[in-house]
Amino acid sequence: MSILVIAEHNNEELQAATANVLSAAKVLAQKADCKISLLIAGYNCSSVAESACAIDGINEVLLADCPALEKQLPENLAPYLVELVNEKSFTYLMAPSTTTAKNSLPRIAALLDVAQISDVIDIVNTDTFVHPIYAGNALETVKSGDVVKVMTVRTSAFDAASLTGGTALVEKLKDAVDLGVSRFISETVVESDRPELSNARIVISGGRGMQSADNFKMLEAVADKLGAAIGASRAAVDAGYVANDMQVGQTGKIVAPDLYIAVGISGAIQHLAGMKDSKIIVAINKDEDAPIFNVADYGLVADLFEVLPELESKL
Amino acid sequence: MKILVGVKRVVDAYIKVRIKADNSAVDVEKLKMVVNPFCEIAIEEALRLKEKGIATEVVAVSVGPDSCKEQLRTALALGADRAIHIATEEITQPLAIAKLFNAMVEKEKPGLVIFGKQSIDGDNNQTGQMLAALSGMPQGTFASELAFEGGEVIVTREIDSGLQKVALKLPAVITADLRLNEPRYVSLPNLMKAKRKPIESISVADLGIDISPRLSTISVQNPPVRSAGEKLGNVDELIDKLKTEGAI
Ligand SMILES: Cc1cc2nc3c(=O)[nH]c(=O)nc-3n(C[C@H](O)[C@H](O)[C@H](O)COP(=O)(O)OP(=O)(O)OC[C@H]3O[C@@H](n4cnc5c(N)ncnc54)[C@H](O)[C@@H]3O)c2cc1C
Ligand SMILES: Nc1ncnc2c1ncn2[C@@H]1O[C@H](COP(=O)(O)O)[C@@H](O)[C@H]1O
């Protein structure tokens, strides 16, 4: 048995999600008594592979560095990975539940003719895994009979593994073929100096109660005082107050920070699905019956337009 | 261009489900069932493409027990031209559904397949990608905008870091994200009319596809519950509490 982990990176550096999926892989490796290989697939990404060698607990770093994989287009990546998995007889394929992996991993699984388990939060044993269903309102334990077990891992459920202390070697793999059916055009990346939403220690999120994009500045001011990342409810994103990548919830990002502050968010099932595993939850809402208070450790029944400036000045 | 749309029957998004006493599954008995919200968006996009003259026919397909016909009728009432029910009483997992859809792709030869990005019951986010794999089509997942130019579809995708644009050769598989469009409502007269429209039925046995589940459910449990904490009087108390807990 052996595990292949697909690293999340941007061709320049490893991204935080890699450390979380590696921690899940280590749990599995211990139960299955097997080794972990880490794949860096991209273009001009050899520096990522070099830094990955320093990760403790991995056996080898596989580097697939070629133009066809630059943006990890699933059409090119999937057949390439199927060949790799077969050649090296990997029995587990793991990746973090990021949009990159959610895009490619099912395509790889289908070509391998195996199931995928989405959003694993616990590894029971070598073939049994727990994952949430119904917006996290139920936890399903499933047993896989497939020869290759393919899974995405919910990053918020596993602490980040240390990315140092190791001395793995890089094996350079052959180039992938560009199948020519898909083409990358462009990316609009939202730049921000704030911590990344998915792994920030503190998250402050705004909902429809914020009323406008402009009002989010009040939230940003508090976020800057706290060193927090900013999130949002679907309603706030749909209304155009903030960008799509800030949506927290069942169908957005799943976060579990030490502190989550929900401002002007009612607490719909779909929103709770994305933040209810946070350590401390604070809710600020003018409606004392808002469902968000049912999960909040601390609640303020108040007008957010009064609370936010006060918080900013007192923090 | 013909468009195939995947329509799944699921429990209404606003119902909090319960787990059966024997922990074998979620209890969906007697709950309000609807078209998966992401599939509503998929149907809407197909209809708009037809209205724009890009598509010529919209075919709604659902896999599952007889009750799925109710959701297919909704699709017909919204404006789908035809509906196909792939009948099975078995538990179907994404790989099996993708295989059944692949048989439909071979039969119907659509120019585009539109799925939802995720079913809100299983939260799998897999079936569209799997169908794309099996059919060899390119895939535009988590789509928030589509544009058609010179035999390609330009897909704007919602990704973790923002938005990404890719160009795909047709035929292609699209999976709809929340902001692709805002679905229209079904009108009662249209729903009545849809009751009389035929739904083609195909049995899984006729397709000769093995749909046996690859994953077996060992148990379904409740997640740990969070209880309500305390309501505080003012901002100072809040800051105090958070400082005491070392949160800030
Ligand atoms: C398929 C599907 C997927 C979904 N996915 C997600 C998801 O991933 N994430 C998500 O968040 N939602 C998601 N939703 C939407 C979800 O159901 C809710 O509609 C949404 O979360 C509501 O956002 P909100 O709380 O900001 O808005 P509302 O429910 O409108 O709540 C606004 C709150 O602000 C409070 N408020 C207003 N003014 C003030 C003020 N001045 N001071 C203090 N409080 C104030 C109000 O009391 C109210 O509680 C999804 C829905 C569906 C159907
Ligand atoms: N039983 C089904 N019948 C029709 N379409 C389905 C079915 N299951 C999944 N789909 C399609 O696949 C999408 C994604 O589902 P999933 O992979 O289960 O999250 C759904 O939004 C549907 O468009």
Structure, explained:
The complex is a heterodimer of chains A (315) and B (248). Chain A is an alpha/beta fold. Chain A contains eight helices and 16 strands. In chain A, the strands form three sheets. Chain A has a seven-stranded parallel β-sheet, sandwiched between helices. A five-stranded parallel β-sheet of chain A has the order 13-12-14-15-16. In chain A, strands 6-7-8 form a three-stranded antiparallel β-sheet. In chain A, helix 3 crosses helix 4 and helix 5 runs parallel beside helix 8. The mean pLDDT of chain A is 97. By secondary structure, chain B is an alpha/beta fold. In chain B, the strands form three sheets. In chain B, strands 11-10-9-12-8-1-6-7-13 form a nine-stranded mixed β-sheet, sandwiched between helices. In chain B, a hairpin with a 6-residue loop joins strand 3 and strand 4. The N and C termini of chain B lie far apart (57 Å). Classes of the chains: A alpha/beta (315), B alpha/beta (248). Bound molecules: flavin-adenine dinucleotide and adenosine monophosphate.
Task: Please describe the structure with a list of short key phrases separated by commas or semicolons.
heterodimer; A: 315 residues; alpha/beta; 5-stranded parallel beta sheet; globular; B: 248 residues; 9-stranded mixed beta sheet; two-stranded antiparallel sheet; 29% helix; 32% strand; binds flavin-adenine dinucleotide; binds adenosine monophosphate
